[in-house]
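call fold(seq) -> tokens
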Amino acid sequence: MTVTSEAAARGRERSGEPAWTGEPGDTSTLLGRPAVGYLDAAADTLATVKREILRRLAPAPGQRILDVGCGNGTDVLELAGRVVPSGEAVGVDVNERAIEEARARGTGTGVPASFMTAGAYALPFPDGRFDGVRAERVVQHLADPAGAIAEMARVTRPGGRVLVADPDHGMWAPDLDDREAARTVLTWWFDNIRNPWIGRRLSGLLRAAGLVEVQARLMPVVLDGIAAADGLTGFSDAVRRAGELGVLAPERARALTGNIVEREADGGFLMYGAMILAEGRKGG
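ret:
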């Protein structure tokens, strides 16, 4: 079965469900869920990835670090603890509710963290302000990834580093018998994200922004059990909605759901994916 946006739209019309399209960059919702709660759930699953981002960014005392698309601020607070006493970690996000939550989490911590509402295309900082800039699971949602990465490079000092990490949603691999149905659901579901295959483009985007010594690393993501898969990707919901909206025939969607249940009962449903970490240094 070939997935088309027209087929998905017709399914929504038949169900009376409002059209659901990709986030326009504000990430106030992620795969149909409130962003703050989603980010908390995803943090545990991606703990290994986050540790590697931190290791590669290598924040040190006295440095200034920027997190673009900081969400609830947890990563900014971790960075702030690494740059004390004279450094600073700053988080920006266009989601005002997320920034409010980040500020609340930072209250009373005593670490040099600050948060502000701002978009990735016009960061409110002078050229060369930061020693390092990170953006995790942000570029996939942006209408102009190249413009955002160029802006990250602008606010990085010469010799500083930019690190961007995003999933490649074309790489998800669930352990299910009906491969065609699984591919259909995954393609339709993740096409609701603006740039579902952005991970494989990140190195080129960093080079286009003028960064040097660009390198990329693929990090596996193992979702062990349907709870983990649902927490990060909403896969069970995707299968259900695909059947309701006509993306899959209802009986085929029910069979796929049954296969998920069988796999879980047999020892655990598994789903594999990948995060791509791309980094570069600003020359000069």
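Residues 5-282 form a domain with the Rossmann fold fold (CATH 3.40.50.150).
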